Amino acid sequence: MEFRKERMASLVKDIASSFLKSKGESGILISATRVGISRDFKNVTVFVSVFPENKEDDVLNSLKDKCWELRNYAKKQLKMKFLPQFKFEIDKEEKARQRMEKILNEED
Question: Which of 65, 74, 84, 86 gives the lowest tally of CB atoms within 10 Å of its CB?
Answer without folding.
Answer: 65
